[in-house]
Amino acid sequence: MSNFNTLISKMLKSAESSLLQRYCLLLWDSCYALKKGVLEEATAQDKKQVKCLILGAQHYQEEVMDYPISRYRDLVKVLKLEQTNSLRPFLFQIQAFNGKARQVKKAYYSDTLLAENIIRPNLVIPESWIIASSLKNKTIQYQQNNRKYICVPNNYKNTVIELNGLLTNREDAYIALVVPQSVECIENDESWLIKELFNGKNIASLWQLILGLYVNYSKQSKQTDWRAFFAGSSIVLVIYLIVISLFLNNSVASLRAESDSLNAQLSPLLDLISQTNESKSRAEKFSGLYQVKGWELTDWQSIAPLFTQGIKLININFLPTGKIALKMRSTSLSSSDVLALLLAQQNVAKADFSGIIQKKANYQDFTIIVELASLQEKTQEVAHD
Fold this sequence. Notes:
385 residues; 3 domains; 14 helices
């Protein structure tokens, strides 16, 4: 009897392997088929007969939404209607009704992805959904084509996140996925991942999700037509706006001439601002701005020591009162230190903050109003007269 059971088990495994090899493909950087336990790039024949496509995590983005609909069938109808009108195709899985709503997890992918890879599968399954279905009280860190991911159980909002950019370790990924740090994480390599994905039992366990994994190509073609319509409409709108813009430009010729004159006066200042002001040598060039007429810039030498490495002058605004508003970004000193440095200058009469000080991790943005001593002296002379 045991020999008979063993024989049946081997026959079932052989049939499973044959079906997966013939009808199932994996899409990572390219399309792959599993042949004799080894991933091989899919041939044209493989792509032609594919029925089920496993979608690599780099090809989709998950989104979770709550729908206040209790009946499963009604929600499926709503989601199918959304798929018809969505600019990007998506797959979905529906969670149980919690008394108020049903949570729906969607996986959006590019509308050109299947066509670019010359495949037309009936079912598309996100790889993390296969892995997540077998997880309970643990997470999995795995590697796929030099990409590292962490996959978590289905009861969390998102099932997968890539360890890349700012998210470089498990702790950061857990925070982003809202997973307690105490949850165990098991590391596995690519060979483990391939076995999990091409596992008939794992794929069959997703049978309840089949309505959300089915690809309707007739609906996708309608979406493409709508995008073409919107693209054409956008071109017409842009042309219309260009014509209107040309008409308005011709009607304000006198204002443009006045603007050009003003820009000519400001050009020395704007040129210096655009050079980022990262060194004292650049800051000393500001001392020559007192020659610009109309702004009463008399002593830029007093401010020059401010622009040391790490302090950038973003913008200058000359106020009607004769005072000067300096918008700065500091990566080396605190805003209060910069203010103290300004007040220590001999030719600065007054200086104080204006507006909010924006403090970031690596820099601070702030505005300081400066009154030069020369301006204060002129004000006193006018009052005395």
